[in-house]
Structure formats: structure tokens, C-alpha cells
Amino acid sequence: MKKIILLSLTAITFSLTGCASGPLSSQAASTVSQVEICKATNEQEISSLFDRWNNSLRTGDPHKVVANYAERSILLPTVSNKPRITAAEKEDYFHHFLTNKPVGRINFSFIEIDCTTAVDSGLYTFTFSETGDQVKARYTFTYKWDGKQWLITSHHSSAMPEKM
Questions:
Q1: Is 52:59 a contact under the CB 8 Å cutoff?
Q2: 3-state SS assignment for residue 7
Q3: 87 with 64: CB under 8 angstroms?
Q4: Which residues on neighbouring strands pair with residue 150, listed in sequence order?
Q5: CATH topology of domain 43-159
Q6: Residue 163 pLDDT > 80
Q7: 146: three-class secondary structure by DSSP
């Protein structure tokens, strides 16, 4: 009986030693690779991301506007019913949107910041320089820090449902 217990304890010890010194299991490796280093930021930096996006609109170049979006991102635009997932779909939308030379202005902003994400939601107004028309809309930009810069991962914009 003592031999069985001793052999069992020896087997358990070798098993545990093997686990400790061997390669990480896929679950443990996944956990290790998911550790995020938080990006120190503030509301001023996050609100400036709208200015970066708005300035890219002013170039008239859809490719420069789309450069603000992460590769995996969604655009739910103001004047289109179609969700835009790919860069080509976003460029197509902005190609048409930019023809009237839009300039955005934030009217109200509410910013929430997390470790590597930030959300800026509120109200904005677009003035179209070509026509003088204005569109008041609600917006939400969700940003993710990619290790180098903040990129848009989701952008929702919808015209205000009530006349102001």
C-alpha cells in the first residue's frame, strides 16, 4: 500500500513538474497574449480625433478619410442605408459624401475612456460648402488604440429625427 501511495505521489510530482516547465497550454497562451497595456489618454486627446477625421474630410480624398478607420471596423453612415465594413465600401460612401464638401462641427460631446478604447458620442452639424445645406445628426465614434494610434472601430451617424 505504501508503495502504491509513493508511486502515485511520484507520478503526480513528475506531472506537475512537466506542466510547470513545459509549453503553455493554448488556453494559457491565449490569456497571456490578451494582456493589454493601457494607453494613457484624456478627453482632450479623444475629442481631437474628431478634428483629425473632420480635417481628412476637407481633403476631399476618400482614401484619407478611410485611413482613420481600423481594418476591422464598421461605418453606419448618415445618408446611406448600407452598413460599410470594408475599406472599399467606406471609400465608396465617402466618395459620394465628399462631393458637397462637408464640414462637421460638434454641438455636444460625451466621452468615455477605457484601457485601450474610447467612445465619443453626441450631436454634430454638417454644413455642405457646395450647397449651404446643413444636416444635424447624432453620432458615436468608438476608437481603439492599436499600439501606435487611435483608430475608429465603429462610427454611427443618424440624422436627428425631430426638427430643432
A1: no
A2: helix
A3: no
A4: 145
A5: Nuclear Transport Factor 2; Chain: A, (3.10.450)
A6: no
A7: coil
Identify the three-state secondary structure at position 147: coil
User: What's the distance, CA 56 to chain centroid?
Assistant: 17
C-alpha atoms less than 13 angstroms from C-alpha of 98 in its C-beta half-sphere: 20
pLDDT digits (tens, 9 = 90+) for 85-109: 999 999 999 999 999 999 999 999 9
User: Three cell numbers at 81?
Assistant: 442605408
Task: List all residues 6 or more positions away from 125 whose beta carbon is below 8 Å from its beta carbon.
Answer: 104, 105, 107, 134, 135, 136, 137
Upper half-sphere CA count for residue 14 (Cβ side, 13 Å): 6
**For 30-45, what is the mean pLDDT?**
80
Is-contact 123 105, C-beta < 8 A? Answer: no
Nearest Cα to Cα of residue 102 among 64, 142, 157, 54: 54
User: Is 31 exposed, middle or buried (CB count within 10 Å of its CB: 0-12, 13-18, 19+)?
Assistant: exposed
Q: What is the DSSP letter of 93?
A: H
What is the C-alpha to C-alpha distance for residues 105 and 125, in angstroms, rounded to an integer? 5
Q: Which helix (H) or strand (E) element contains residue 34? A: none
